[in-house]
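Working notes for the structural subgroup meeting. M.R. asked for a predicted model of this chain before we commit to crystallization trials. I am recording the input and output together here so anyone reviewing the notebook later can reproduce the run.

Input as submitted:
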Amino acid sequence: MIMSVGRLTVFAAFLASITQVSLSRGAGDRCFCQVTGNLDDCACDVETIDAFNNDQLFPKLQKLLESDYFRFYKVNLDKPCPFWTDNNQCGMSSCAVHPCSPNEVPEGIKSSNHKYSADANTQDVDCEKLEHLGAVDASLSEKTREALQNWNLHDDESERFCVIDDVESPDAQYVDLLLNPERFTGYKGPAAWQIWNSIYEENCFKPFTVRRPVYPQVFHSGQGKDAPAFYRWLEGQCVEKRAFYRLISGLHSSINIHLSARYLMDDNWFHKKWSHNVSEFQQRFDSELTAGEGPKRLRNLYFLYLIELRALAKALPFFQQSSFQLYTGQPQKDQAHKELLLEVLRLADTFPLHFNENSLFAGDEKEAGKLKEDIRLSFKNISRIMDCVGCFKCRLWGKLQTQGLGTALKVLFSRRQIEDLTKPNVPRAAFQLNRQEIVSIFNAFGRISTSIKELKNFRSMLADFR
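Returned structure, recorded in token form:
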């Protein structure tokens, strides 16, 4: 097509204006100019979170996560994908997970998946004796015992936001998280995109007629125009569904930050080098390269931080119980690590601008109950999608982080049961966390905390591109 001279002049002026805008705005501005001030649906601001996390919480939390109790995570990485035929398993060495040998896992952890102290088994035996002495008929049929077990399982599952079946699986193995860090593995392309597309399109309450602004480079094919309609739809949703989408987006953002911060920059016969890849970070979060989506994703990361921080603060009474121990079989270290854990939780509790979870499910009790159940089942479905991830290291960290977020939601929506823990003469409360949930909620928040810390590093690096 041939342009007239007048049109060429106008077009040249347009290109010049675009170039001038790009030059006047540094790379850091394009990623972070909108990542400031108050967050939607919250009373908190980005700057308060940055200062609190980077200067106070992050160092203590990282020290805690290096302890034996939190570094060993039991997981089944061999479960088949329940939704589609998975023929896209990553064959690269960087995708591999190296499980622990039996002698590498502390005895206390192997023998106490659901116990918190050394004398827990003795207490269980005493309780069983008392129940037997007081029972009218101790001879329950096999069918009755099975029914009772199913009731208990149903009660447990009714409060969970994740599928937790890895602990008892014969295929589950312990993994040392410190020796299998989350970082870029090379797993990308259609297989990886299918995972996130399934999560967003099928589990975030979005009708298929509303097109989501998507990633990767589809903005350049014109799909960026879908953003206004999508955000009009999102703003029209109730606060709970908006929050659900923002949590998933925040989790996605956090994972992308980890991959950009520990990117495989050098791979040869002699060594591998992982370090910050500023270009990769820009591809995911630069406002011009993502049609304005990048800064929104980063703001959703801060929202996710607030949710998980609030859950840890709310769980403090559970961990303060004298019966709770970080039992690994090393009494002195276990006690020191419990004190550090309580120090972290008390610090979390002092945060001045916590998310107010009472704003969620605050309407009609029946409608609120149905909405909560819909969200619980949607998130549980997302946890099952993690078994479709083709890269085993990505699958490991995906399962851990979704389980951690699911545990955080369980804590937030168990307010009454947690409050009962502090009341005298109240029968044993129903609220419990097993070791798998405890390890996942702290490590998941550790990942979010690391992401906030890494944003400071990327801000500094991008400032050099001005």
